Amino acid sequence: MDDVKPCTTEWASAQVAEYAKRRSDYVLFGDTLAQVLQHAADLYAPLAIVQVRAKGIPSFAEKCLRKCKKYRQPVDQLTDLCGGRIIVHTQAQVERVSRFIEEHFEIDWANSEDIGRRLKTAEFGYRSVHYIVTFKRGVFPTKDVPVKVPARLYGGKRGMSNPRAEIQVRTLLQHAWADVGHDLLYKGGFEAPEVWRREYARLAAMLETADGAMSRVHADMRRFVSSYKAYMTREQMAEELELLRFVRENDPENMGLALRLAGVANAAESWADAIDALSPFERSGESPVLRELGVAYCGKGRGAPKGATYRRGQALLEKAAGDPDAGASALLALAESWRGVDDRKAREAFERAFEALPDDPHALAGYLEYQIALGNDLGPTSAAAPAIAAAIRTCESRALASVDIPGSYFTAGFLYLLQGDPYAALDAYAKGVERSEAAHQPSTALGMLERIGPAAAHLTGYPWAVRLLQVALAARFPDKATSAVVRGLATTGAAPVAEPVVMVAGGCDPARADEFERYRDMLVRGMAEFCGTVIGGGTREGVSGFVGEAAGSNPAIHALSYLPKLLPIDATLDERYSEVRAIDDAGFTPMGPLQAWIDIVAAEIDPARVRLIGINGGRISAAEYRIALALGATVALVTDSGREAAKLVPDTRWGDSERLIDMPADAASIRAYVGGTCVPVPEGLREAIAREMHEVYRRDKERELRPDEPALASWDELIPEFRRSSLQHAGDIFAKLALIGLEAVPVADREPELYVIPEKQVEVLAEIEHGRWNVERLLEGWRYGPMKDVKKRLSPYLVPWSDLSDPIREYDRAFIRAIPETLARQGYEVRKRA
Q1: CA 228 – CA 676 distance, rounded (Å)
Q2: Nearest Cα residue to 820 out of 746, 753, 749, 731
Q3: DSSP code, position 403
Q4: What pTM was estimated for this model as a whole?
């Protein structure tokens, strides 16, 4: 079939014939999957409807032609040749069944989707969780699911060649909408008239409306509206404050307006504005006024909690908390004001706050914090287990809406630790660090952990969370105290980590080698010119071994690892690493990468200058990716390598991180991303070359000069993004020439001779130039999209060189061919190295 032109009748017929041969496998797959899902439904959703079937041949034929541009070999690429559906009654059942699927199947996360999260705020309708699954060896049968999976359904040499199925999980109402509206409206092969689209939208809205849901939405929205940080940047809050000050001048007696101004001011930590706005209304005795005023005075006096300003704030909060109808939130604010100031009063205040607000996560966390500290044991957590689980759900819900940030994350992290889920705790703490805007936020979270330290020191994950917060304070909010703490934690007797620094993380499980082994050559070739420190796993297995191989072939790499003193039996020390630093943890844990970060920060290296590459990986790698983002490093994940590298970009919490990059899987892009080559261009010459290259580009595009085309402006008027692009391009020229055995030397007594770069070498360097362009665009916030969209920063060219069309490749070739002439204008001659 490879020699048949796609999207033709001949091609489609061949695909259909091939699927017809294989369909019996998918029928067997469907029968087996139906049995498994029915058992799961019996356990977690007894009234659920289970539907499973193999795709029919006519349906396959239609999809072949409709999707022929995307799928050139649909029999091997389509993920829904077998489809299952489990329809339950409640969203809680959706979540439980989804958890069952995630725990018992191999999930293709890159192709799975929670469509409910994709819908916009104002959209109703088709919501469903879609998983692309493969049967996992050694799982079934179980006691609860006594289903034996035929061996051929696992794939492999003697099994199916594309052993995947799609499972949809949805509620009855979601299914009703899908049956009545979605499939007809969006899968009919036509654009429905607007009048019917509106009718279906109204129907969807009715299906989603329920009294209980509306009451929860109302409460959540009230919380959201008062959480200005959820929808305003600091700049927007400053603009809002300026506007409200102006309005207040014309309506000084309006207490509601003053409260609104104070709410924005407190969110922006502009304490003086809040105090100025509410002081005239203090005598009203209104609880909301006293609370906001108390928060403002405590904020203003935070540096001296025993001083008059701070104590005045506490007195106002105490007074506000006396209101039986509206004082609960003030009581919680009062309790938090005593945290770290007076343990006895904090414990008493949190007891009162928890009694008044038993469903509030912060009240519960504070109550448990001081009960554990008082008794020096974790006993109180057992009785509170259901409340902890509910509080975590509330924190996650608030965080999803950006409400109470970063507090929701830090509280969730604390509760996850008490629940015994250390990796979820580390994830939440990392996100809290990333979203922190002031030192007191991670400092408060660290204080909570330190107070329960005697009881929790041996709690799995407790030391990880403490170390993360310690290094975060020194990295994000450095001062003498936090820097001294990190220096004290740095590896004893080790030389300071030297820049530039690249961290490499990812899969190391030999049983999963087929998932990441094909990226070995990409990483080794991508780091062939790197000069600096590369921090990897230190063992020969998997991605850690890729780093060892790169170091073995490039002596300019200082390969550094952090390993437990006693390696697990299935791990082999990679002696190609230059240095191994010992950590105290038994086995592999996140403490290794955390110690690496401690040494980096202790060496006074800004995390923003550190870059991490992620390939595949499990839960430790997932933690590494998140810790690096939290501290401010740039993280490039090769998402098509699967597992944790594929999960992070679509993660609703992390996917919008400015420093997270979906990295094309090619060596040229890795080379450009790590930088640090040993052949730099002198700074003055770099700008001169960049100017010259830009003018050549403008002349080549002369006919396209338009006022609205920023890339074609003159050098002096060029926006910083495009100027950086030209400078980066120029800065890589000498290194590119060195790759093909050339050098550029100054010529003073004659005109430089123009060297003609052979076309084979032009092709090599053009591919490298495209990789450099890929990374440059990605670092500027661009992402892949099928159509170019400058406003949305989408480009169809953010792909490996092999996926580019020849006309697009020609742009890069032209740049390479022009190098000798460009350098000649600066008095440099390109020649072969002696």
Answers
A1: 42
A2: 753
A3: -
A4: 0.71
